[in-house]
Amino acid sequence: MSEPIRASDTPYAIAVESGKSYFWCACGKSSSQPFCDGSHKGTDFTPVKYEATESKKAFFCGCKATKSQPMCDGSHKD
Ligand code: FES
Ligand code: FES
What is the four-CA torsion angle of 43, 70, 12, 19, rounded to 10 degrees? Predict the structure, then answer.
């Protein structure tokens, strides 16, 4: 398994909508962070689906090192 690209040093704060699904970029290559734009083709990575159960601000991992994908778990500080 290759290493993901660190897209950002901090999480992305996104206003998610209840009932909607989001596909988080795991590889770090997407141009529309934090979401997948298909750029992972040819890599070992696939996007991670997130289903919003409520409308709120969600913090998606930008560093791609989180251990609780797709959300930031503070690992970007390491
Ligand atoms: Fe990164 Fe799809 S572009 S997982
Ligand atoms: Fe990746 Fe916080 S941005 S763990």
Answer: 120
Instruction: Tell me how far the alpha carbon of residue 67 lies from the centroid of ligand 1, in angstroms.
Output: 17
78 C-alpha to ligand 2 centroid (Å): 9
Residue 22 host element (H or E): strand 21-24
Give the predicted TM-score (pTM) of the model.
0.95
**16-48 per-position pLDDT tens digit:** 999 999 999 999 999 999 999 999 999 999 999
Give me the residues paired with residue 15 across strands. 57
Distance CA 6, CA 15 (A): 22
Cβ-Cβ contacts under 8 Å for 5 (sequence gap 6 or more): 27, 28, 29, 64
